Amino acid sequence: PNGAPPMPGVIGKFLQVGGGREYLARVPGVAISPIPDGELADLLNWMLLQFACDDLPADFKPYDAAEVSALRADVLITQAASERERLLAMLSASEAKREVLVKDINDKTPPQNCGGARG
């Protein structure tokens, strides 16, 4: 699958794994665009808020011009697809671990309204 991935439901998830934030600013379509660093930071922030508000980490820090400048200096020319696959695999593993943890917690937590009795 070549081209840009869908934005809604996908773009914000990249911020949930290490390297994902950097990836978003280093892909060729972003990094080599003829947009000044500050405007590109604003665009990335707008995209995340517009298409991924529910997926943003609680400690989300907006991109700024200095960060974008540093990231776009190292464009993922040939590595964009493999890096995306690596990040998606990390995300998938993270979500699987989260599901197991939630199930484990739910299995061990008695219902709150039953006085600790299991039903």
Describe the structure.
This protein is mainly α and 119 residues long. It has one domain. The protein is built from 5 helices and no strands. Residues 113-119 have low confidence and may be disordered.
User: What is the beta-strand fraction?
Assistant: under 5%
Distance between the termini: 48 Å
Q: Any idea what the shape is?
A: globular
Structural class of the helix and strand makeup?
mainly alpha
Quick summary:
The chain is mainly α and 119 residues long.
Question: Could you outline the blueprint of secondary structure elements for this entry?
Answer:
Layout: H1 20-26, H2 28-31, H3 37-51, H4 65-72, H5 80-108
Helix pairs in contact: 3-4
Structural key phrases:
mainly alpha; 119 residues
